[in-house]
Structure formats: structure tokens, C-alpha cells
């Protein structure tokens, strides 16, 4: 597992050699959502509305970086860090 980013109390992670479809985990407190990288649709779980909007805003801006991190994770390479929301 790799922590890619933190902002506003939200932690963004991708696990190494994760199952398809390509997705990331966003955690806020005890709540977690899995979001598909290519469509930015919810794969599983949920977050409170404000945090959900912030995660989608961030993912829209960083979608190509998320795809690259996913690919590196599939190769068991370091995924690096992604900048938070501005």
C-alpha cells in the first residue's frame, strides 16, 4: 500500500498489485470509498458529501497521475506522491 496524498483530513492510497478495475482508496475518519480511476465513479463505500466532492475535485485534476501511480503499483515500483488540492 502506498499513501499518495493527504488533504483536509483525507488520505488517498493505492495498494500494490491491486485487483481491477484501476482504483484508489480515499479514507476520512472511519469512512472509506474506492473510486475507479478511469471513470471517477464509486466502486465501493462512501464518504460524507463534502469530502466526496473534494476527492472528486482532486481526482479530476490528478487523474493522469493516478493512472501512472496505478501502473507503477502493478509493477511493484514506488508510486510516489501526488500533490494535494491547491
Class computed from helices, strands and strand pairing: alpha+beta
- Beta-sheet strand percentage? 25-35%
How many distinct helices? 1
**Low-confidence runs:** none
Rounded mean pLDDT score: 95
Largest sheet composition: 5 strands, antiparallel
Order of helices and strands: EEEEEH
The whole-angstrom Rg is: 12 Å
Number of strands: 5
Assign an overall shape. Answer: globular
Count of domain modules:
1
Q: How far from one another are the termini?
A: 24 Å
Strand sequence of the main sheet, in spatial order?
1-2-3-4-5
What percentage of residues falls in helices of 4 or more residues?
25-40%
Structure, described:
With 86 residues, this protein is an alpha+beta fold. The chain has one domain (2-74). 30% of the residues lie in helices and 31% in strands. It has a five-stranded antiparallel sheet with strand order 1-2-3-4-5. A hairpin with a 5-residue loop joins strand 4 (31-36) and strand 5. The protein is globular and about 35 Å long. 28% of the residues are buried. The model has no long low-confidence stretch (mean pLDDT 95).
Amino acid at each position: 500500500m502506498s499513501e499518495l496524498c493527504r488533504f483536509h483530513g483525507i488520505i488517498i492510497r493505492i495498494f500494490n498489485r491491486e485487483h481491477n478495475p484501476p482504483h484508489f482508496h480515499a479514507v476520512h475518519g472511519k469512512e472509506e470509498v474506492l473510486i475507479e480511476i478511469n471513470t471517477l465513479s464509486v466502486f465501493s463505500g462512501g464518504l460524507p458529501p463534502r469530502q466526496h466532492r473534494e476527492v472528486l475535485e482532486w481526482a479530476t485534476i490528478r487523474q493522469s497521475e493516478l493512472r501512472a501511480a496505478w501502473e507503477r503499483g502493478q509493477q511493484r515500483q514506488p508510486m510516489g506522491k501526488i500533490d494535494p488540492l491547491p
